[in-house]
Amino acid sequence: MNTTYLRNITLLLVLFGLSAGSTQAQTTSTTSLEVPKDLQVPQGQNLLLKAAAKGSQIYVCKAKSDNPNAFEWTLKGPDAVLLNEQGQQIGKHYAGPTWELNDGSKVVAQVKAQVKALQPRTIPWLLLSERSHEGNGILSSVNWIQRLNTIGGKAPASGCDRAHSNSEVKVAYQADYYFWGVPTNKNVPRQTTPK
């Protein structure tokens, strides 16, 4: 047999082995991004929406709760627009944390798990669970939200002291949000959770 042929077969077997071995990690149906185990949503959930967020994380300079003579930047909340895959604005993201779409639906969530981002000065990736809903649109069926692919948004490393108490700073950030749940009407697209 030809050595090039054998080398190509070996390469294919290695690649197949790598891809087969990585099937344990959850992937979204719209991207090949692997989600860390701690941030995977439970089985039986459907991907209802993927939205990109662009905006700011807002921090306030506050005294530490355990030491009133020391100060730190404390997250006030995000202020971002939500964009669909065509770059059109479909909603907004703000304190709560809350996501609100132009269809009138809204979801408020709480953090369940986080994983440190790979890039420095970048906010972590998150898994959040739903606390409350409003409206009848897409977000009314959301149970879980993943914040992935974050860029920027981390609090400044300095500049918070007694002289700057209660001052605010906005730090630019971007992220992808994946909204998971069980659709309650036929107008919501169904994309099943990968097994």
In short:
The protein has 195 residues and is mainly beta. The chain has one helix and ten strands; from the N terminus they run αββββββββββ. It has one domain (25-181).
Description:
The chain has 195 residues and is mainly beta. The protein has one domain (25-181). The chain contains 1 helix and 10 strands; from the N terminus they run H-E-E-E-E-E-E-E-E-E-E. It has one helix at 3-21; strands spanning 26-27, 34-35, 46-64, 67-83, 89-94, 98-101, 106-115, 125-134, 142-152, 168-181. The strands form 2 sheets. The protein has an 8-stranded antiparallel beta barrel. The chain has a two-stranded antiparallel ribbon with strand order 1-2. It is globular.
Task: Please render the helix and strand layout as text.
Layout: H1 3-21, E1 26-27, E2 34-35, E3 46-64, E4 67-83, E5 89-94, E6 98-101, E7 106-115, E8 125-134, E9 142-152, E10 168-181
Antiparallel strand pairs: 1-2, 3-4, 3-10, 4-5, 5-6, 6-7, 7-8, 8-9, 9-10
Number of helices: 1
Main beta sheet, described? 8 strands, antiparallel, barrel
Silhouette: globular
Q: Could you list the spans in which at least 5 consecutive residues all have pLDDT below 50?
A: 1-25, 27-32, 186-195
Percent of residues in helices comes to under 10%
Sequence of strands across the biggest β-sheet: 3-4-5-6-7-8-9-10
Question: What average pLDDT do the residues reach?
Answer: 83
How far the N terminus sits from the C terminus, by CA atoms, comes to: 39 Å
* Number of beta strands: 10
